[in-house]
Amino acid sequence: MVGWTYLLYLIFGIVLLIGLIIVLIVIFHREIFKILDRLCESFRRFISGNAGFFKIIFILVFFVEQVIFIYLLDKRYALPKNAATFIGAFALVVITTASFQAFVWEHKYYHTKQQLRSVKYVSLLMETYEEKMSQLKRVFEKKSKEK
After folding, report:
1. Residue 52's closest CA among 92, 111, 95, 93?
2. CA angle 135-136-142, nearest 5°?
3. Ordered per-residue pLDDT tens for the chain, 147 residues
4. How would DSSP label each residue in 44-80?
């Protein structure tokens, strides 16, 4: 239990140190926020350009978290041996399946949205083409009547 207490104090110290650094930055260097804003914007573009990769990474992180959960459940608590493994494995399967389902549905939605955008663009082009053709037809009919 002493190890957990030490870990909590360490985490609290790190959070306190980060908070102090942020306060000092705000007080002394307001220009740093402009730099951070540009950095965050670049990071956002990178993430949105590689969204599929990051989703797979997060699914793998969830998977690892569940494996750790199974291990801790099995070693830390006095559950029957097979019960802890079964509960953990079930949670692992459910979360991994839900994550992959969300990933697939989001990509399906994105591609459907792109296809709809393409159809609207083609429809607009067709309307413009039909308008131009009718104008051209009227011009030819008018010229043929003049002859």
Report:
1. 111
2. 90
3. 557 777 788 888 999 999 988 887 777 776 777 777 788 788 777 877 787 787 788 778 877 877 777 777 777 777 777 776 777 777 777 787 777 777 777 767 777 788 888 888 888 889 988 898 888 888 888 888 776
4. HHHHHHTHHHHHHHHHHHHHHHHHHHHHHHHHHS---
Two tokens, residue 69: 């959960």
For the chain, which residues make up each domain, given as ranges?
1-49, 51-147
Question: Cβ–Cβ contacts within 10 Å for residue 117, how many?
Answer: 10
Neighbours of 66 (CB within 10 A): 19
Question: Both tokens of residue 30?
Answer: 């307001």
